[in-house]
Write a structure and sequence with these properties.
A hairpin with a 5-residue loop joins strand 3 and strand 4. The protein has helices at 49-58, 79-97; strands at 3-7, 10-13, 34-39, 45-48. It is flat. The protein has a domain at 32-64. Helices cover 28% and strands 18% of the residues. With 105 residues, it is of the alpha+beta class.
Length: 105
Amino acid sequence: MSLVEIAPNRWVVDKRQSPPQRSNLSAPTLISDEMPAVEQVDGRFYTSKAAFRAVGRAHGLTEVGNEKVTPKRRASDDVTARERRREALMVAKEKYRAGYRARSV
């Protein structure tokens, strides 16, 4: 730290401040609603993304990347499947203890 004279017999601590961080871009980037003309299922051409998506939704279409994925259920979450698996393992264990061995072909 150092002192800087700002007036006769008036001193302040020199606090070097870094300039605020700025982007190299001249303005913020915005996503436009405009797009090249694209044909939708109704045979019309659309240059507005919102209108294009509205027509697709009205016809029951799903835009790729916007669909809602339903979570998959694991087989191990099902109680009956767990019980059947436990039962099958117990039967296999009893057969093995009884001396049964599967023949290899």
